[in-house]
């Protein structure tokens, strides 16, 4: 893994704090999917270190700012000249948010080996609402308002949307999990990712706060501190725009059909043994997984606490 990564058709980048290891790497190895683990090592993230067997796959992150964003940006900045054809960016435990939940992490990723898309959202959850804070709690909206214009301008720089104002409405895939091609990543210069990384590594101030915020690591867990996480939550809504997609992505049902799972793929997954996973009692040799799809449209006055959705059923 220490050599160039450009020969890989697909590489999995995992960002971890102190979550249990589970069967994640076992599944990836069984599926012959190469991976790197970006391990946060500050504060609480140091309470459950990686085992020595994973050392060859590990890259250390000395800070715990910015949720998963810091790991993604460290990879893009460090590996800019040796990117694989396609990279899947995941936070640890991502499978719970993916369309084929319960069928193993690789089942949600193997289609990317032959995908011709430049960007693919990997969550089952699509959200639609008023930019910049669809469905976010009222307490966080001032922080989003303080920075979203600058992040939008940065995201669209050099692209077809450059110079245009932020959209009134956006539909994005939540949970900060996605895949991007080397071509889409390199549509921005390396300095673009290095500049973003500097904010999440404490070198320069974060944007989504009032006043200076270039604190290093919060003593407990920066992921729970407003100052450290809102910048990454803005990027979560913008990754698809950064990588060349329109602000309003298709809803999750259409996305499963048109972007994620090509004809025959689900049948193939249903026939494969699932490494490290207990087979459901009702599963048979001919069981074909039904992708989950959650499309939620949030009115401007709503937030998570109120659960005020215009439409929010789980669809299959």
From TrEMBL:
Region of interest (Disordered), residue spans: 270-292
Biased composition (Basic residues): 279-289
InterPro entries: DUF3431 (IPR021838)
Superkingdom: Eukaryota
Protein name: Uncharacterized protein
């Amino acid at each position: 893994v220490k050599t160039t990564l450009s020969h890989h058709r697909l590489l999995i980048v995992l960002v971890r704090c102190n979550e249990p290891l589970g069967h994640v790497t076992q599944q990836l190895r069984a599926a012959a999917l190469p991976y790197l683990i970006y391990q946060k090592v500050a504060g609480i993230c140091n309470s459950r270190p990686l085992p020595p067997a994973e050392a060859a796959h590990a890259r250390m992150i000395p800070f715990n700012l910015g949720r998963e964003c810091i790991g993604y940006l460290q990879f893009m900045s460090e590996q800019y000249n040796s990117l694989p054809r396609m990279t899947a960016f995941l936070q640890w435990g991502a499978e719970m948010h993916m369309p084929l939940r319960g069928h193993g992490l690789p089942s949600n990723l193997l289609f990317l080996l032959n995908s011709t898309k430049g960007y693919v959202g990997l969550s089952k959850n699509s959200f639609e609402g008023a930019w910049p804070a669809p469905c976010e709690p009222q307490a966080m909206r001032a922080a989003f308002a303080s920075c979203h214009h600058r992040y939008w301008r940065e995201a669209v720089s050099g692209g077809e949307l450059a110079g245009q104002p932020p959209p009134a409405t956006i539909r994005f895939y939540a949970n900060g999990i996605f895949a991007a091609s080397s071509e889409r990543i390199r549509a921005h210069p390396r300095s673009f990712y290095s500049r973003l990384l500097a904010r999440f590594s404490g070198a320069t101030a974060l944007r989504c706060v009032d006043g200076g915020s270039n604190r290093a690591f919060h003593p407990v867990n920066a992921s729970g501190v407003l100052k450290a996480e809102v910048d990454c939550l803005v990027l979560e809504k913008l990754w698809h725009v950064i990588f060349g997609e329109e602000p309003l992505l298709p809803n999750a049902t259409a996305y499963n059909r048109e972007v994620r799972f090509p004809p025959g793929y689900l049948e193939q997954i249903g026939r494969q043994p699932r490494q490290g996973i207990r087979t459901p009692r009702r599963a048979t040799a001919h069981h074909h997984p039904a992708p989950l799809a959650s499309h939620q449209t949030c009115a401007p006055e709503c937030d998570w606490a109120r659960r005020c959705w215009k439409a929010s059923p789980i669809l299959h």
